[in-house]
Each structure stands twice: as C-alpha cells, then as structure tokens.
Design brief:
CATH superfamily of the largest domain: Bira Bifunctional Protein, Domain 2
Largest sheet: 5 strands, mixed, barrel
CATH class of the largest domain: Alpha Beta
Number of domains: 2
Radius of gyration: 24 Å
Strand content: 25-35%
CATH architecture of the largest domain: 2-Layer Sandwich
Structural class: alpha+beta
Number of helices: 12
Helix content: 25-40%
Distance between the termini: 20 Å
Amino acid sequence: MLWSKTFIPTLKETPQEAESVSHQLMLRAGMIRMLMAGVYSYLPLGLRALNNIQEIIRQELDSCGASELLLPALQPQELWQKTGRDKDMGEVMIRFVDRRGRNVCLGPTHEEVITDLMKNHISSYKQLPLVLYQIQTKFRDEIRPRFGLIRACEFVMKDAYSFDKDEAGLDKNYQAIHDAYKRIFKRCGLNILTTQADPGVMGGKVSHEFMVPAKDGEDLVLCCVSCNTSQAFKEGESQDCPKCGARRNKVSCIEVGHIFKLGAKYSESLGANFLDAQGKRQAIIMGCYGIGVSRLIPAIIEQNHDDAGIIWSQEISPYQVVILPLDVTDKKILDLAAEIYRELEDSGINALLDDRNERAGVKFKDADLVGIPLQVIIGQESLKENNIELKARRGQEKITKTKAAIMEEIKEICKKNG
RNA sequence: CGGGGGAUGGCUCAGUUUGGAUUAGAGCACAUGGUUUGGGACCAUGGGGUCGUGGGUUCGAGUCCCACUCCCCCGACCA
C-alpha cells in the first residue's frame, strides 16, 4: 500500500480528549477517531490491527475444535425476559421499538440467542459436545465510557459457547479454551495474569479473568510476589496470599478475557434440553468465553510503546514493513523503493511505502509513531555505498547493508514471526 | 447518576479575572511561490471562526447571569 493512497491522519500533538497512553497513541497514529463518547471509527491502520488479532483468535479456537458462526446483533427483548436478564442488564442494554411495535434490543452479549438456537437443534447427547464462537460488535450503554477502546459502548467481542452433556465435559472444554486463551494472548505479545473471578450477572459458579497489567488499567488485581497467584481485588481483602502466605501487590490491569462455567442456568430457563443415553431429559451444560477483541488493541499498546510511539509485533502490525524513501523527487531512490515493495509483496510480506513528498524527519517521526516493526530506509547517505538500511522499531537498532542482504534479513525475520 | 474540570479555525492553546480602540489572536496543519532536504525546515502571500446551543443583563458580551447540550477525569458496572 502507498501511504499517499490510504488514510493515515497522524497527529503531532496529543488531542485533549485522550488521557491514557494507548488512547493518545491510537489517535495520534491515525488508527481511530471518536464519533461520540464510547463510539469509534476504525481507520485503515486500526482495522488492519484488529483483523490481525481476529485472525490469531480464529486460528487458536479453530485448532481446539470450535466453529465460527455469526449471530444477530438485533434481538427480541422477549428472549431476555425468559432468562430474567432483561432486568439484570437494566439500562446497559440498548432498547427500542421497531415499526412493527416489537420490543427489540442491540445485543450486549449472546447467551440467550445461542441457547435459543441450540434448544431447537440439540436433542441427543450424541450431538454433544459442541463449541461455537463468533466475533461480533456488541452494544452496551455504559454509564461511563472511558479510555477510547478500553471501555466503549460499541465494541468488538469474541464470544464462544460450549455445550456439554455433563460437568466433566464442561471442565474439559473450559480447560481447552483456557489454554487457547493463553496462546492467543501470548501471540498478541501480552503478559497476562489469570485470576479467579466473580461470575456476576453471567451466572455460574466458576470464572476466570485474563488481566493485562497496565498503568491505565481499570481493575485492581492482587498478585502474590512469590507464587504469582492472582485474584481480583476487593475492599477488605487480606494482603497475604491464601496459597503461600506471601505478600501480595495491587496491580492495575485491563481485563481482556473472561470465561465462565455457566452450568444449566440458560439451558434450564430457555428449555435447551437433550436426551441422555438412558433416554432421560437433561439440561445442556454450558460454558461461555469472552475476549474483548477491540480492547486488546489498547492493551497491547499499553504494554508495547515508547516515547516515540507504538511498537507492534510482526503478527499484529497493520503492515510488516514500512519503506521510507527519504527523497521521492530522486528517481533512483523512488524506483528502488518501488522495487523493494514489489519484492516484499511477492514474498507475501505486507508493506507500506511512504511515497509522500515529505522531509526525512517527518517520515521518521510518523513511522515511529505508527509502530510498524521494520523500517527500510532508502536515502542518499547509505546509497552512496550502494547500501540501504533496516531499522527495528523496538530498540531502534539499525543495520546498513546491500539491498539483497537486507531483503534476506527481512524475509528471515518475517518467517520467524509468523 | 454523584463529585470535579472543560468547550474559542482541522489540531494544540492564549484572550474571560476587571465587558469597550481586537477588525477575535498565535503555533501547527492547509493552498500558492521560492529557498531547502538523514529526525516533525525556513521565508513570503493566502484561505479558513455561528467564540458549544438557547435565552437574559447592557449603549456594547468570547468575557457577566440563567438554562441546556457535548467532551474529559474520579466513583459504582463490565470484555
């Protein structure tokens, strides 16, 4: 992609609307823009990062036997009345009456819809277990949207649901998805803490949260200095670790995932049953598993940035390489840049070519801000020796070699990092 | 919803205390011309503003008063 042909409105100064580092950088790097409080447009760079995260999630969930589907965002309120969550959700749920006079809502989550779907199609234990997921926009009229994409009223969530014939099956799926989550967050370049959590309005007995330690996090987690066991912080809680007795630190975190053993809560209230091997009717045993997909972007940025801007990993970055011809009025430089671009694209490496007629300083600053992990620099200085440069965004280390050597280097790095 | 802060060109802000000669400013960005060209260049010229909205006070309001809207921060909630 040519920089001049896409839409990357970078900002030199920090907009006053942004308080958290990730929000500031996302605005400055031209990834998002606010339409109203808690509602954001994803610009090309933001969307590419989001898509890359989704791809990781799909790969990991597919690999543990889950299937993707897509449920409606528009839902009848009637369904929510059946489970009693109509009241629990309160004003968080966005409701309105359509032209037919139906009371509808925009889905804040999808337990009701998917359980209703299963009710009509699962009748035997032979159809279980089953794990389904979707990546979809959720709507929650939050009391206080905050920190850009960290808490938005319209956001992208991955929600998975498991259906089993018994608790043992649930335990197995729960563990498999728990493990998949660890792989997902690792591939996102995140250090995470997992905590025992309160299931709250979701219901069920057991739940775990996946927390990203970050300065601007909204949640406090007690983390043991010795055994690393973590737990959601509640007022009046002992500071000592219940497991090993050591001291615990309060760590502020961003919650990026939450998984629940729901049991029969939804299947019972919606009548989602099956016949077991003895011909006896039983409620389907469910689990549900959420990841705040759009929230992952700011979480990743919180943990991966420096004074100059964002530092993406190869896998998440909107582009894997940015090519910086420092003087586009010099035909030799521009031609070489175009040649490198073609060669990278031909090898399946996504590149962004900064073809703008801007000074070198502007290009360096923007490239650092936007955070693409590899920068290929083509300028008079090294071209005199017939060389070009390759700079790693993380650490800002630079090597100067021939074009052929640099191309090899890039391919090597991209191969190693997926 | 409670508490605090804010709203002046696309962005960051000054001006509001003490209403008046300000024709509402600056920097950045934008347009044109020129000089530049390895870390957000410089000079010149130019375009762009219902000072959040609506009332009110006054000879006169960006500035004072009232109401409302929107945004941000702290709290309860959540992926």
